[in-house]
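Reopening this one. Same input as before:
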Amino acid sequence: MKVFLISYDLNKSGQDYNSLYEAIKACSYSDTWWHYLDSTWIIKSNLSVSQVSDKLKSVMDDNDSLLVIEVINNYAGWLPQKAWDYLKQHIFN
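Same output, byte for byte:
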């Protein structure tokens, strides 16, 4: 099982975020995803980084930007304790 950080910019006005959100959730294993920050998700998935990227790009416009990176259990930052707890219990377990 791999963990991916997904970040994007939807550049066209009137974007359909629901289609992208559903595609991200569909890439996650057992509906295991984290979305505390705007335009940033962390998912646990059985897919490869290329497969995730391809699936998400299929619901995005050509002028949008997408970044999908595999991450490891090494992180830091400033988040509410609830966010850290979810990451530890569901993503990096």
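So the earlier flakiness isn't reproducible anymore. For the record, The longest strand covers residues 2-9.
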